Amino acid sequence: MRFLSPQSQISPAELDRGMRMLLVDGVSSQIMGVVTGGAFLVAFALLLGATPFQVGLIAALAPFSQIAQIPAIFLIRRVRQRKRLAVMGAFFSRMFWFFAAALPWLFPGTTTSGYLFFFLFMYFSLGTMASLSYHSWMRDLIPEERRGQHAANRIIFSTLAGSLFGMVAGYGVDLLKPAYSLLHIYSAMFILGGLLGLSGVWALSKIPEPQMPPPDQDDWFATLGKPFRDKNFRQLLIFLASWNFAVNLATPFFAVYMLNRLHLSMTLIMALAMVSQMANILFIRIWGILADRFSNRSVLMESGPILILTMLIWPFTSMPDHYLLTLPLLVTIHALSGVSSAGVNLSSSNIAMKLAPKGEATQYLAMRSLVSGIAAMLGPIVGGTLATWTADHTLSLTFDLKNAGTTLLHFPTVNLSGLDFIFILSFFLGSHALHRLITIQESGTADKETVREGLQYEVRKFARNISNVAGLRNLFYFPYGALIKKEPPSKECQSPPTLDQERDKPPEKGSGQAG
Prior knowledge:
Blueprint: H1 12-36, H2 38-47, H3 52-64, H4 69-79, H5 82-101, H6 103-106, H7 113-141, H8 144-176, H9 182-204, H10 220-229, H11 231-248, H12 254-261, H13 266-293, H14 296-313, H15 326-355, H16 361-389, E1 394-403, E2 406-417, H17 419-434, H18 448-466, H19 470-473, H20 499-503
Antiparallel strand pairs: 1-2
Helix pairs in contact: 1-8, 1-9, 2-9, 3-7, 3-16, 4-7, 4-16, 5-7, 5-9, 7-16, 8-13, 8-15, 11-16, 11-17, 13-14, 13-15, 13-18, 14-15, 14-17
């Protein structure tokens, strides 16, 4: 299989073709993830008899599988063919979706969540080994000056395809469930996801791989310990650990909350997911531009707080059940999550690639994934345990207006129970984790004000580009002097640029470190 072997030289045409194939893989893999994960996987597990605690365990399987990074490091160093390892690992990993899909037929009418755990563990473990090979491969293949824009394009195309496919799949579930078993419907979706995943493997096989740099002579422990001895990278690992624990304490239970607490249909759940993904698409390119112009840390400092804020809004979607503001708040949460997760996911991945020394990306990125994975594994386990403990706990604060013993107005200002406490705890832990960013050094990091000016500029520019009505563009400016039609002055009589014109220039790259 020479087509899986590294190349000593890669032409610009081969690189461009390979990056197009990366988009194909991204789209296929994203659709596979949509129809085999999220609300669909949670619903499938619940139908197989899983408890909320076991749902937390399922969410912990993916990060727990990051332990496979350790043998993967030395397998890559020994074989030195990352493309071969990535393609073969992804192929065998995605085959396990066919086994999971067969569960309702193999064991009809029985609780089979244990088998599902095993199949998911094999899928995630093999996928983890493939992922490490893939990221080390991409680290040496994609030029640094194109990395941010390419990552943004990959996320845009894959997210758009995944959101549209997920919306159709959600509607299909609600449409077919009166006539077919839900278990069989989800099984068919897993089969489709497996087939799409294999098409992504085919695309990966078409991407060239540069030869790895010569290996160093460090021993086992020295290889594993290098990222931890690097002070700056160690600070990044501390941030990623605390951040992933805080976020994954709550996120695996969003689907459970919407299914069991708010009793939403699958169509509505996927529509909300589409809102999040569309917001993600709209902002991923903007975050990518800002990451390239300033730094990944600057983007994290702006996008991270928005994502954490959504955790605090979740408890107010029920008072204590579905009410007037439930849907508007859910739309707000998913829109903000899409905007912020675009920046968080893009920058947290790129900052590790940037801080990893060239030629040593394998062990650095492996330790990044391992540390993040352990924290992300503990998050849903702790969250599931706390959710079980708080299931019967309620905290209610009401506003009552009474006259002579008669209640004139009764308004529940706060009504917390069960998972609501987990969401609030996630907010506080995430806020604390963001403070760790100030300890990370990255070239190009700008102060918050400069980054926000850059964000506002890019949003205005994007709004102008998507608007076909000239007058609508003026709504993004203040004051509204552009509404007054004026003759353009001659070149000789042109006055200095106005404040508005100066404002519309892209901000200069900041030279100071963010505080």
